[in-house]
Amino acid sequence: MLERPDALSRIQALFRSHPCVAILGPRQCGKTTLARMMDATESNFTFFDLESPLDLRKLSAPQRALEGLHGLVVIDEIQRMPALFEILRVLLDRPDQPARFLTLGSASPDLIKSVSESLAGRVGFLDLSGFDLRETGTDAQNMLWTRGGFPRSFLAPDDPASFDWREGFVRTFLERDIPQLGITIPAENLRRFWTMIAHYHGQIWNAAEFARSLGANEGTARRYLDILSGAYMVRVLPPWFENLSKRQVKAPKIYVRDTGLLHALLHLESALDLASHPKLGASWEGFAIEQLLAAFEAREAYFWATHGGAELDLMLIIHGKRYGFEFKVGDAPGTSRSMRIALADLGLEHLWIVYPGSDGYELDDRISVLPLREIPDLALRGLA
């Protein structure tokens, strides 16, 4: 198992201003292991796993079970018992708070039934995905891209074992995890939709086109997208648009968040399979976007495109300034007319072209070529 010092330090920082911290992310991304790493630093540590029948029985009267605890209290898979959020609100409002609570969830608050603003102002959120380059090291870049960041996939002894794990994960997610959220959709329907997203990875969302392929209406297609997005399987990247003298795209882009799962859905078992596949460039784009969002802990991330053909793969707004990123899988990328339009129209401070190579270089004062392996250092330097 790899160490995750950045995530641990963020948890500690959140606890300095909140009595409760929620770690949110997909199943099997390492939330439980990360929470158990906290045990070494705590004098009192209590762990509840809501997938354990024994722990469920312990919490049959939740307020009585939790109110006498001290130290750090961890509640894993909290989306299985939404009523706990109201109990936690009462406990967190006690004047002399004897406990801190760390909750782990595999679904976004919007997807969990009956959860509203119960913990507003009381909880700090940490979004956790699988491993990223800061944790695996940059030498593992290609393996991380091919296998994805789920710990058991990345750490598998070989590519076939990794691919088998991912195929099993997809099946378990559809047949067990989704029904546990109270969502009643046939697994084969959702798998078909998820596979369609894999084939549209990196493209503009078109509800009508998905609905026609599913033989359903647009509302059903949007509901399926909301489910996979809320379970952290799909990233919906919103468009940026403003008052320009150009017609701009106002529909989001869609990506399978983990490239290992993307490759499993596309039946690409190895880096060799990926290298000859038409989705190679789109796969690289999605992988690089996830590494950037993890490194910068970005909250404001968009793409931009016009109906005239100008586009920008990713725009981050950091400290009120706009920074642009383009993603190219080929060697020695250069500038394009589209990049210069984006620089001018969006008022970008700088634009980086991110590629898999090892050498960075300047193309002009505001456009640079950046190896993906240098993204963690760029984040540490603050985009300087």
Structure characterization notes:
It is a single chain. The chain is of the alpha/beta class. It folds into two domains: 5-127, 3-Layer(aba) Sandwich (Rossmann fold); 133-381, no CATH class. It has helices at residues 5-15, 31-37, 53-58, 62-66, 84-92, 133-136, 141-147, 151-154, 159-180, 187-199, 207-214, 218-230, 259-265, 271-275, 280-296, 337-346, 375-381; strands at 20-24, 45-49, 71-76, 99-105, 123-127, 203-204, 234-237, 253-256, 301-305, 311-318, 321-327, 350-355, 361-364, 367-371. The two termini are 33 Å apart. The relative contact order is 0.09. The mean pLDDT is 92.
Strand arrangement, major sheet:
9-10-11-12-14-13
Largest sheet: 6 strands, mixed
The mean pLDDT is: 92
| Count of helical regions | 17
Fraction of helical residues? 40-55%
* Helix/strand/pairing category: alpha/beta
Low-confidence stretches: none
Strand content: 15-25%
User: How does the overall form come out from the CA principal axes?
Assistant: globular
Distance between the termini: 33 Å
Domains (count): 2
The total beta strand count reads 14
Radius of gyration, in Å, reads 22 Å
Q: Main attributes?
A:
384 residues, alpha/beta, Rossmann fold, 2 domains, five-stranded parallel beta sheet, 17 helices
Helix and strand layout, with pairings?
Blueprint (H helix, E strand, L loop, with lengths): L4 H11 L4 E5 L6 H7 L7 E5 L3 H6 L3 H5 L4 E6 L7 H9 L6 E7 L17 E5 L5 H4 L4 H7 L3 H4 L4 H22 L6 H13 L3 E2 L2 H8 L3 H13 L3 E4 L15 E4 L2 H7 L5 H5 L4 H17 L4 E5 L5 E8 L2 E7 L9 H10 L3 E6 L5 E4 L2 E5 L3 H7 L3
Helix pairs in contact: 7-13, 9-10, 9-13, 11-12, 15-17
